[in-house]
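R.M. (postdoc): so does anyone remember the format we settled on? I'll just put the structure tokens first.
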């Protein structure tokens, strides 16, 4: 443990470790909510469209309930996202002070997207039972596009940090002659953006479907649970092989544009051909790798489709310009975990597709639904691992080959930062506890509503407003006495 801390913090400001830990914690917490914010509007509208198209009140009921979850999740996401925005300025003033004029437009785009999404979600929620069905659905259609716009803003900023361009440096090393379009559309933007967006759809689909998979395992085999499982799972299953292709594409871009980062991710020490692939394993400061499974030549084959592909090693640059052994191991483990989970999700999706194409029905195996119930949690872990790979693999650079993390950190005392970290952890535990409590209370209310209809979700019940078909006059609310 002492060695790990020393490797992470040697020859760096005392503020660096608590600042990084605080940023990592808040980012890891926020990203749990991001898949639902980006992809749940699309999943909800697909269910909404099915309900209108087939005159299916169960589909409309599901869409309405999901829209309520979408609103609560968005409110929590705004809180955690705002904290991150402040942290950029408070924890990394060197980054924002020097480079904010170059890549800051991405954060501006995200802010506008948040504002528009809040308005549209409010209109969509208000529209149930108040607007004509077609009008209500059409007003909800911009929601997925606005969610993608928010992702566009933040991914533009992050991809610029990985492959910065769109500026020149003056004699003092400050950026001038900024080209906004080049700063946004960097070489890594396209692969990183689409990889991220599809990952959000895959994750949200499996998370939502997992709820109904648990219901299926508990004996709920009605139309409500079948439909609640089938729509999001189908969307996620279709997107899973696409995500595999996009993941391969972005790995190849990293190999070409950030060779040292690729070397850290794959534990490559010396530049060579016929480079082996390690499944897990630990890199040591002398360049040796212990543990893990060694597969000869596979890394070169994956990088360039031939064993003769030359892969740049970590030792090709000075130690101060590359991740240290501990950071490389962290990035490597995160990458292998992400790929491993993705492979299992692909297998689950192929199983689902095989059964559907052959029998035109949902799978009946309990093991399949156990896997589906775990897929949501697993996909969230994969998303976390993807961000760990992206950020840790770029070390020691906060702006690749232009500014080190240590140069950007705040001058605030490390003790103050540790206290702030502790307070943020307490606040986040409370916030996420409230979030979970609200979701459980909503679930209990829906179960109570379903119980009052005898388990039916396909017809109106005047006594229970929640169970009423979403369109049409609302039942009267009783007076005070």
């Amino acid at each position: 443990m002492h060695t790990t801390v020393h490797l992470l913090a040697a020859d760096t400001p005392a503020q660096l470790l608590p600042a990084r830990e605080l940023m990592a914690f808040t980012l890891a917490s926020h990203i749990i909510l991001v898949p639902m914010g980006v992809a749940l509007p699309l999943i909800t509208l697909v269910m909404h469209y099915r309900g209108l198209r087939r005159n299916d009140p169960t589909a409309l009921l599901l869409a309405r309930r999901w829209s309520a979850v979408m609103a609560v999740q968005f409110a929590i996401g705004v809180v955690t996202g705002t904290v991150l925005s402040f942290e950029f300025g408070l924890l990394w003033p060197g980054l924002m002070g020097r480079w904010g004029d170059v890549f800051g437009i991405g954060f501006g785009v995200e802010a506008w997207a948040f504002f528009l999404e809040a308005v549209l979600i409010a209109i969509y929620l208000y529209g149930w039972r108040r607007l004509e069905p077609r009008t209500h659905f059409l007003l909800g259609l911009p929601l997925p596009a606005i969610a993608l716009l928010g992702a566009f803003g933040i991914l533009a900023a992050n991809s610029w940090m990985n492959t910065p361009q769109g500026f020149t440096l003056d004699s003092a090393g400050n950026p001038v002659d900024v080209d906004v379009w080049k700063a946004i559309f960097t070489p890594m933007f396209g692969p990183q953006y689409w990889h991220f967006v599809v990952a959000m759809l895959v994750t949200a689909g499996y998370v939502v479907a997992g709820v109904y998979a648990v219901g299926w395992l508990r004996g709920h085999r009605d139309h409500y649970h079948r439909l609640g499982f089938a729509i999001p799972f189908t969307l996620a299953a279709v997107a899973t092989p696409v995500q595999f292709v996009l993941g391969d594409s972005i790995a190849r871009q990293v190999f070409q544009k950030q060779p040292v980062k690729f070397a850290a991710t794959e534990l490559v020490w010396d530049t060579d051909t016929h480079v082996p692939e390690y499944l897990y394993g630990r890199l040591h400061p002398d360049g040796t790798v212990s543990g893990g499974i060694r597969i000869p030549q596979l890394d070169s084959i994956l990088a360039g489709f031939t064993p003769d592909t030359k892969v740049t090693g970590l030792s090709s640059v000075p130690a101060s310009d590359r991740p240290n052994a501990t950071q490389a191991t962290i990035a490597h483990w995160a990458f292998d975990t992400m790929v491993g989970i993705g492979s299992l999700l692909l297998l689950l999706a192929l199983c689902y597709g095989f059964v559907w194409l052959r029998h035109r029905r949902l799978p009946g195996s309990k093991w399949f639904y156990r896997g589906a119930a775990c897929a949501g949690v697993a996909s969230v872990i994969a998303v976390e691992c993807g961000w760990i790979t992206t950020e840790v693999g770029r070390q020691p650079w906060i702006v690749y080959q232009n500014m080190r993390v240590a140069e950007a950190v705040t001058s605030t005392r490390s003790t103050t930062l540790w206290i702030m970290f502790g307070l943020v952890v307490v606040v986040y535990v409370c916030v996420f506890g409230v979030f979970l409590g609200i979701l459980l209370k909503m679930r209990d209310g829906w179960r109570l509503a379903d119980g009052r209809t005898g388990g039916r979700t396909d017809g109106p019940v005047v006594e229970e407003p929640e169970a009423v078909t979403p369109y049409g006059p609302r039942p009267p609310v009783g007076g005070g006495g």
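R.M.: ...and that's the designed sequence above, right after the tokens. Also worth knowing: The CA atoms of residues 341 and 382 lie 6 Å apart. Confidence is low (pLDDT under 50) at residues 1-10, 458-469, 471-481.
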